[in-house]
Structures are given as structure tokens and as C-alpha cells.
Amino acid sequence: MTAVIAKEKRAAKRTTSKKKGATKKTRPKQTEKSKLYASLVVQLLSLLKGEHDFIANAANFSALLFNSLPNVNWAGFYFLHGDELVLGPFQGNPACVRIPMGKGVCGVAAQQLETIIVPNVHEFPGHIACDVASNAEIVVPLFDGERLLGVLDLDSPLIGRFDDQDAEGLNELATVFVAHEQGLGR
Ligand code: SME
Description:
single chain, seven-stranded antiparallel sheet, 7 strands, disordered N terminus, binds methionine sulfoxide
């Protein structure tokens, strides 16, 4: 399987001074991507503030991701209903409505309770193609404590578009989203 589980360790790149004779090591800089995700957390909190409608909040969350993250052609939710995932609010082309547990990238992420990064969806056995433009995908499970609520799914036309920083950023955003809904007593 070509999926890369987000937990997988990746050697962190260190930034060192290139000046001749310099010995002082600089701290790894906050990357543009981590800055973008930090800004999205602030924007998401602002969108959620004071609003209690779950569908409206999920819809705005998907629109925020779709319009803020570069090279994303689909962003949205599948929520767990019984033993299958059912399409929720999203941005992008119309998508398949029901995904059984264990099927497609979404169903595998839901079954394994793991974030899954797929660099090339055409190499993922059982990938469910909703948009021919999609070449890469990331799926983040959503939890209410131990309970699986569903998944957040993003597609990209760019092979290798998603990496561990996306997994980390999207997991943080998903946690903020679910915590807000929990705070509303759901
Ligand atoms: N590709 C997904 C199906 C959902 S769409 O990408 C929106 C999958 O394999 O589960």
C-alpha cells in the first residue's frame, strides 16, 4: 500500500547558517505551511464563535480549507452513520454519498482510526474516484473522545501534495472544530 501514515517519522530538516566560519546553529524556522495552519486555526475559531449550528459550522470549515489551502480541489466531511460514512458539507465537485467502512481512502482511515496521506491515489488499492482531477488525498478521522464521528477529506490535483505538516495542521483544526461542537453540549 502506498499510503503514508501520518505518524510515520520524517527526518526534520535543520537550518544552519551558511556564513563562512559560522558555527552557531539556528533554530528550525516556522515554515510557511505551519504559519498558514496557525492562521487557519485563528480563522476557524472566529468562524465558529457564537454559532451552534453543526451543519453551518462544518460547511464554513470546509469552505475555509478549500479557499485557503493551495492546490486543493475538494475539501469536506463524511460522517459516520451506522456502519457507513455519509457525505457531509463540502466544497468541490459532487461526490459519492456513501462509503462503507474499510472502502476507499476514507473508509480505511475510518476503520484504522488513523490519518492517511496518499501521495498518488492511482496507486491506492480501492481508491474511490469522485473527481478525475484528484491525484493526491489526505483523510483525517474526527473523534469525540474515543468515538469516531467521521472523517475530514481533502483532494489535490498535485501528486504528493500532502505531507506530515498538513496532517498535523488538519488534525489540529479538526480538534478545534470538534471541541467547539462538544462545548455546545453535543
Ligand atoms: N477518494 C475518496 C472518496 C471521497 S472523494 O475523494 C471526495 C476515497 O477513496 O475514499
